Amino acid sequence: MSRERARRVSLAPAEEFALFRLFPALIFHSSQLQTIEKIKKVAEEGNFYGAQQMYKSFGCRYASAYRYLEALDIFHSGACLQLANGQVTCGAELAVCFVEHLVKGNIPYGDDTLDRIRQIYKKFPRISVPQNLDLGDDVDMQQLAETLGAAKTRAEGCSTFLRAAIKWSTEFGGPRNGSPEIHDMLADYLYTESPELDMSRVTYHFVRGRNPKKFASTLVNFMGKCYPGEDDLAVARAVLMYLAQGNLRDAIVLMDEIKKQEQSQGVNIPQSDLMQFTSFLLETLQRDALPLFNMLLDRYRQSISRERLFNELLDEIAEKFYGVQRRNSMPGGMFGEIFKMMAGE
């Protein structure tokens, strides 16, 4: 009596997922590319929640078997797909999973991984706030509230992902302050997308990046819409934070670019005492002129006192450029705590 040849039964992706949950070892009978395609079909059917559970489950299965590269492929694919479909909370969660498994897999800092981080970053939506709304209209106000709430979710999700990526870069072979490319990404997203703009945080990341011309454009844009008295503070803060890292070159590039864009875009740099001090400081630091440096601090003391952080930054600058030991440090390591707040930690 002839035996019937067993036939392969075709299962829907969701059914295969249920089977894999019962028999985890079956996951390794197919490649991660096949797995990714199966999950993609679930998402294409509109079942984004189901797809999310599959991305997380399959990614963790690969990681538990120490197959971190396959796990990273799944988390990367899932983050990009969910974000491309506007599923920001899901996409941000998978983006963070991607970074967490870079750490678990001891993946070193390098261009290939940086490209994948950039690919996820570019998938985070950028949606402008509706204009010309009638603030007396309940429907318009409801729309504005929903838009601002969604913007906050996007900014927090992207920020959490990129901060985790910066931390990974510092621990696995990147620059001491973290990847400058990732700092630039985070600074730009915070400025353009956050509904609660904090220029101190934006500055913190831009000065750890490597694009002072982009930062200059951001500052010029900010000067065109900020409240009076915020413009010169923002420029001075940027220059002093560059200098506190010993980065005179980018501080000069920043100021030169702001002046160029001031002429081309019709935005006026405020002619305040603080701006005079900032310009004189840049000239002074290009020579061995500690007495002149001290004279500037004394002459512009009132302008410097407009922001408490400035005195701390100037102490750091004196140490970096002239070897002067810090004197008036904030108590209890508050200087470091302020920078942690700026970084969003």
From TrEMBL:
An individual GO BP term: protein insertion into ER membrane
InterPro entries in UniProt: GET4, TPR-like_helical_dom_sf
Coiled-coil region list: none
Taxonomically, which superkingdom? Eukaryota
One Pfam match, given by its short name, reads GET4
- Gene Ontology cellular component list: cytosol
Family assignment? Belongs to the GET4 family.
Q: What is this protein called?
A: Golgi to ER traffic protein 4
What species was this sequence derived from? Salvia splendens
